[in-house]
């Protein structure tokens, strides 16, 4: 079945460092791909999305490109801030179903 | 746009009581809503998919008589935890999908503590 694999966390970086959080997927066809962010004590927020191959989603300085050849959707940001500390989830809609398949989440901590 | 609210944001109750959590889509209609449970430092666990006007579809291992879901309108779904026990303490999150879209928009979550 469809699945999402994220890099193991936690990830700790210093402010202004470059961030990459890896996400690879297994899916039938070419589903939309999503990154969600969860700040402490809150629900998830849609960070960015891409709906087809080679699409680049971007928001708040974060970017991710839909790569069908490597089945990847890695999240990147050029210069992280303390306020980016959160848990990040990669997700895709399950084939033939309405529900989302989530990665296990990557906890990111940015130190000043 | 695409705002989802939950109420209450937190609740503390005694063992054996029932607790109702509301999930509303504020600026769109949602034929489908989802209920998740999240344990500390873990990913979300889908409990059930709720379709307006029909019975919810529960995931394997989720007791439908324990977790009652009602989706009476295109903007409101409720989750009732019946006869709550301490092991039901958790963070419950709902989400909703606008018609024809694959992404889900999440509520802020409800922290349930059962004493």
Descriptors for this entry?
heterodimer; A: 112 residues; mainly beta; 6-stranded mixed sheet; 4-stranded antiparallel sheet; 0% helix; globular; B: 115 residues; 7-stranded mixed sheet; 52% strand
Estimated helix fraction of chain A: under 10%
Estimate the mean pLDDT confidence of chain B. Answer: 93
Q: Helical residue percent of chain B?
A: under 10%
| Helix-and-strand structural type of chain B | mainly beta
Q: Could you state the order of secondary-structure elements of chain A as H and E? A: EEEEEEEEEEEE
Q: What's the shape of chain A? A: globular
DSSP E strands of chain A, number: 12
Mean pLDDT of chain A: 94
The string of secondary-structure elements of chain B, in order, is: EEEEEEEEEEE
Our estimate of the beta-strand percent of chain A is over 45%
Q: Quaternary state, please?
A: heterodimer
Q: Approximately how much beta-strand content do the residues of chain B carry?
A: over 45%
Number of helices of chain A: 0
Question: How many whole angstroms does the radius of gyration of chain B measure?
Answer: 13 Å
Euclidean distance between termini CA atoms of chain B: 37 Å
Main β-sheet description of chain A = 6 strands, mixed
Ends distance of chain A: 41 Å
Q: In this structure, how is the largest beta sheet of chain B organized?
A: 7 strands, mixed
Decide which structural class fits the backbone of chain A. mainly beta
Low-confidence parts of chain B = none
| Cα gyration radius of chain A (Å) | 13 Å
């Amino acid at each position: 079945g469809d699945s999402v694999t994220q890099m193991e966390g936690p990830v700790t970086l210093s402010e202004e460092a470059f961030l990459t959080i890896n996400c690879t997927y297994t899916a039938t066809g070419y589903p939309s791909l999503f990154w969600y962010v969860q700040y402490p004590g809150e629900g998830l927020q849609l960070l960015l999305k891409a709906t087809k191959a080679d699409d680049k989603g971007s928001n708040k300085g974060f970017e991710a490109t839909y790569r069908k050849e490597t089945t990847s959707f890695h999240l990147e940001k050029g210069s992280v801030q303390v306020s980016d500390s959160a848990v990040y989830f990669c997700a895709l809609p399950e084939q033939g179903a309405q529900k989302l398949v989530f990665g296990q989440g990557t906890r990111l901590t940015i130190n000043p | 746009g695409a705002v989802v609210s939950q109420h209450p944001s937190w609740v503390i109750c005694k063992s054996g009581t029932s607790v109702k959590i509301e999930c509303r889509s504020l600026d769109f209609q949602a034929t489908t809503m989802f209920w998740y449970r999240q344990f500390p430092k873990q990913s979300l666990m889908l409990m059930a998919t709720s379709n307006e006007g029909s019975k919810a579809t529960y995931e394997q291992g989720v007791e439908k008589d324990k977790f009652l879901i009602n989706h009476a309108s295109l903007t409101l779904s409720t989750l009732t935890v019946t006869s709550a026990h301490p092991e039901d303490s958790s963070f419950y999150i709902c989400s909703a999908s606008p018609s024809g879209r694959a992404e889900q928009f999440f509520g802020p979550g409800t922290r349930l503590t059962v004493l």
